[in-house]
Model the fold of this input.
Amino acid sequence: MAGHSKWKQIKHKKEISDAKRSATFSKLSKLIAIAARGNQDPATNIHLQGIIERARAANMPKDNIERAISKAKDKEAQLLKEIVVHATGPRGSAFMIYSITDNSNRTIQELKKIFTKYDVKMVADGSLDWMFHELSFTICITPDAFEASPLFEEVLDAGVTDIEQDINHQTILYHPAQQTHTLKDLLESRGVPVIRQETQTIAQNPLSVHDSKDLGKMMTLIEELEDLTDVNDVITNLQNST
Done:
């Protein structure tokens, strides 16, 4: 169905070293605690369920996930808040940095120190929203001759707007975020294994940087940002950033 591949824009998870695994789990724990505020039941809290799926994809132990959920009512967790910093850099590059912090001023100052090294400047909140959009997808293993099967029509009726296959011959179904649970229930009821479900923010018009030196510098910038304790995710319009 797909004329232009969305899969190339998806931020794919990289293998992480043992040294970074603990930091990754800590960041995921904060995300889970925030998502669990007010409703600790993943079955009825769609946002929490999505974060838990991310944690599982990162091989976060079940006990860690459950502890993070139980800490949602702790005073320390109540002080946490999510902030998004927008920034622009060389050659039309744009960045949205998602952080979880108990001290916004500290986090912003840490970001600014890195920005200065790479000629990146903060811009007004929300000013880059038009450059990005959310994309929800489900990865599953469909049967042979899927497009000729009744299931194909069923997933379209369930809200799927586009379909692709990745290099591992897994099927990627694109759909509105609100159809995530409905689609999962449908696939599992038909015996189709669901590998992963997620919503990501991606660029409307990805930016290609052909100069290897410039691209390398920007990749180093992203790595430094992601290594900050408070930073949870870095979204960019760079085509080759994943």
